[in-house]
Amino acid sequence: MNYYRGINSNDYGPLPFATNVEQEAKRNQSFRTALWTGSNLQMTVMCIPARGETGLEIHRDTDQLVSVEEGQGLVKIGNYKERLDFQQHLCAGDSVFIPAGVWYNIINAGKSPLRLSSVYAPPAHSRGTVHRTKADDRGIC
């Protein structure tokens, strides 16, 4: 149930907002969509196609919580992009905490889309961000 809608955007922040995140993630067809952006926190929903991945990235000043809403994935994390020492399989209901300043990649390990929600603190993307495909995402944050 959505109580407030952001003005001229699919991003509902910074107004108060209540919704079912799992349903929002399952409805999302874009690689990344900013669902709510405030001053200190942001939530996006993501759709990673079969055999797809987020791509190796780092958020130097942003902690992240990624939750699997649907599908199966593999997360790889490390201090160096050439050495991702931490690896964990993920399925619906699982979450992974990714500290600022580490390299990571989330890979779709299933045959259907991997649907994620991701909380960034502080925000990592501009308010209202929509990356329809992975190619629309431009680099390191």
TrEMBL record:
Q: Which SUPFAM superfamilies match?
A: RmlC-like cupins (SSF51182)
The protein's matches in InterPro entries, at most eight in alphabetical order, are given as: Cupin_2 (IPR013096), Flavonoid_dioxygenase-like (IPR052538), RmlC-like_jellyroll (IPR014710), RmlC_Cupin_sf (IPR011051)
Locate the Cupin type-2 domain: which residues? 45-120
Superkingdom: Bacteria
Pfam families to which the protein is assigned, alphabetical: Cupin_2
Record's protein name: Cupin domain-containing protein
